[in-house]
Amino acid sequence: MQAYHQGTIDYFCAVYAIINASRLLLNEENIRFSYERGCHFYQHLMTFLHEQGHFMTVLTSGTDYPLMDKLLKEASDYLFKHYRYRLLFSYPFHRKKTKIGDLLKEVEAFFNQPRQACIMRYHNFVEGDHWNVPRIITKNTHILKFWDQVETTFHVEDLTLKPYKRDGLTHLAKRGIIYLTLEKPKRGRPAK
């Protein structure tokens, strides 16, 4: 019997992914992102969902692309207010034609650079529709690993960029691959 992943049972995985990616980025800037700070960030994003009327939608259906965009903008505003850094994000594969192997190489090259992180949306029969932060793509064993408390691992030969269907494959959404960086403060020092 497997343990539940954070976010896969309650559909708030997009919130967790944003917090995890932000934590990685802030740590690269030597800003201590404690458990308490993570809790405050989580509470802020959950309050935002509730106040914007999205809480019940996410609770029952998850986070779609327009809502993910709103959450990322809200996260950027939050990080600026508390750390003087802006969260910058882009969707590099949204309209790009590419093969799965080439896409994974490009993603790996991006998030292995300092001060860069990535969020990916994937869908399969076991995990369902899920947002997560990739950390390792190994070429020799063809494994994609995600960064959360319980590591999720996929073999590359079981991945596809085609729309989801119940075919036993894990479907990566090109529009759901998000590159993230932090914009440094223009003046003053960030909070430690």
Helix-strand makeup class: alpha+beta
Second CATH tier, the architecture: Alpha-Beta Complex
The radius of gyration computed from the alpha-carbon positions, rounded to a whole number of angstroms, is 16 Å
Oligomeric organization of the protein chains? single chain
Helix content: 25-40%
The description of the largest β-sheet is: 6 strands, mixed
Explain this structure.
- The protein has about 190 residues and is of the alpha+beta class.
- It has one domain (about 15-185): Cathepsin B, Chain A (Alpha-Beta Complex), CATH 3.90.70.
- Helices cover about 35% and strands about 20% of the residues.
- Strands 1, 2, 3, 7, 8 and 9 form a six-stranded mixed β-sheet that branches. It has a three-stranded antiparallel β-sheet with strand order 4-5-6.
- The protein is globular.
- The model has no long low-confidence stretch (mean pLDDT about 85).
